[in-house]
């Protein structure tokens, strides 16, 4: 069995129309009525097909064969999209390298590079005047104390982790001092001819917690229709992920904690204290993911954890890395919240429509609620 996550590139699926069967039966939107006058709806996806004349069913089978061929062509399309992403990633990388240099303070941007027109320019100018006046007052009070300008943009990535709900849920207080040393996050795409995948690289400056300069997380993907379920194909799927071994300094591993337990000898009655290490909540567990085994059934907690891991990996790739500065300032968070509100409003409207339809005495099939990430077992 394996867990899968379909990226946003192909998440939306069309809905089948049950009214076709009603039209064939000549019942319009009223459906089929039993002798008691109650409306019956088709109860399964194969109901319509089973009611077709044999000659029509034969033609439907031909259409299904065409649909499988379409799915195979679509798979090739997504393979080329992956290659296109890899090509353009190389064009983005020099800009991301410069971003890293500005963040870490390795390079100071020029006046021209710092020019930026803001829609809130007047408000910012007014706020700047207030800050200058406050700074003058502070300078008078602290003339004897020299102040050093901060290097680069302090806690750039840590601020993003704190701001994004998906990441802050994993973040623990003992993780924060380590993430202050995070210099950059990069996405690397698999080379041509290799199985489709992408790798997240977390680059750290030298620190007192571990020896690794880079921590990696590989997400393996599949872009081909499943032989047993070809019509379920909706694009590339994350099918597995692989972390890396962190070379922790002695006593600095935040993914475990030491506990002491007292044990009493059954015969002599003496008590001794035993020290043992147990797992500890930490963002750095991200690099030791749950493994999907094709032979063993996973429990629900493991399935949920793995599905969440796939979602986080995709979010890093599609949102965090390309738009890091906007998550640092909070502008991307505002966009995400606006999108969520629009989705919610649409859902409310649909629910209201359902209520109105119920008031009219019509029965509507219950709609499935959208899921944040579409995963399935194989």
Automatic annotation (TrEMBL):
Q: Name one GO biological process term.
A: nucleosome assembly
Identify the stretch(es) annotated as Disordered.
332-378
Highest rank taxon of the organism:
Eukaryota
List the SUPFAM superfamilies: NAP-like
Database matches in Pfam families: NAP
This one is known as Nucleosome assembly protein 1-like 4a
Keyword Nucleus listed? The answer is yes
Q: Which GO terms describe its cellular component?
A: nucleus
Asked if Nucleus is a keyword of the record, the answer is yes
Which stretches does UniProt call biased (Acidic residues)?
332-362
Checking Gene3D superfamilies in the record gives: 1.20.5.1500, Nucleosome assembly protein
Q: Which UniProt keywords apply?
A: Nucleus
* Organism from which the protein derives: Gasterosteus aculeatus aculeatus (three-spined stickleback)
Family as reported in the entry's similarity comment: Belongs to the nucleosome assembly protein (NAP) family.
Write down the InterPro entries for this protein, in alphabetical order: NAP-like_sf, NAP_family
Q: Where in the cell is it found?
A: Nucleus
